[in-house]
Design goal:
9 helices; elongated; Rossmann fold; oxidoreductase; five-stranded parallel β-sheet; about 35% helix; two-stranded parallel sheet; D-isomer_2_OHA_DH_cat_dom; D-isomer_2-hydroxyacid_DH
């Protein structure tokens, strides 16, 4: 005996629609694109910290962007600057019509033209107060190494420092920051035996780099979501 069950056509069609919908994968919202050095590249953020960024953003490497600006220009909403790269000049700013944020890794922003960047309606952030412990530790190390105070970058006249070291006015000096960076190979300071120069590595510890990258991500997300960033840097009036 065969038992026939009549299923209303509308119910059948609805059931089929449910089945089709269930089988279809969920669409994933595209992550915002940022321009940055490829993690792991020379002068770039260490590759160990790439997942922190990639969780929220799609990274367009500097090389990718240079090779195909037309493809990527409209997509870039933020630039992550690490070790003063990428260089933010007028040409790059004009090439990024949807740029909203320049996110600097580190405290110093001397390499950024803040008034120029701000004139494009782009916000700038840095990562202050995160490197204090690491740089203090290195400072003490340099202090012991030189048996003299640590001198940094533009805080001192490097020509005057060379003269003082050469004449014995200052016994020794240790530097982690110079201007420019790196010093030219023929710079007089590099010829002295009583000066120790490091490649601006005071903040290069695993823990410090991690919190810096996390803060960069937080600043970028805030700006892209229309919220005030934690560490905005504004042009001096």
């Amino acid at each position: 005996m065969t038992l026939l069950i009549r299923v209303p056509f509308t119910l059948l069609r609805r059931s089929q629609r449910w089945s089709t919908t269930a089988a279809r994968p969920y669409s994933v919202m595209e992550k915002p694109h940022i321009l940055a050095l490829q993690p792991g590249d020379k002068s770039g953020i260490h590759s160990a910290f790439a997942p922190i960024i990639e969780k929220h953003f799609t990274i367009i490497s500097n090389d990718e962007f240079t090779k195909d600006k037309q493809r990527w220009a409209d997509k870039v909403q933020a630039v992550f600057v690490w070790c003063a790269v990428p260089k933010l000049n007028r040409d790059l700013l004009q090439a990024l019509p949807n740029l909203k944020a320049v996110i600097n890794g580190g405290v110093g922003v001397d390499h950024l033209d803040i008034p120029l960047i701000s004139s494009f309606g782009v916000k700038v952030t840095s990562t202050p107060n995160l490197v204090n412990n690491a740089t203090a530790d290195l400072g003490m190390t340099l202090l012991l190494a030189s048996a003299r105070k640590v001198i940094q970058g533009l805080v001192v006249d490097q020509d005057a420092l060379f003269e003082a070291l050469s004449t014995g006015l200052i016994h020794a000096a240790a530097l982690d920051v110079t201007y420019p960076e790196p010093l030219p190979r023929d710079h007089p300071l590099l010829k002295l035996d009583n000066v120790l120069i490091l490649p601006h590595m005071g903040s290069h510890t695993y823990q410090t780099t991690q919190v810096m990258v996390e803060r960069m991500v937080a600043n970028a997300l805030a700006i892209l979501n229309g919220q005030p960033p934690l560490d905005e840097v504004k042009a001096s009036k």
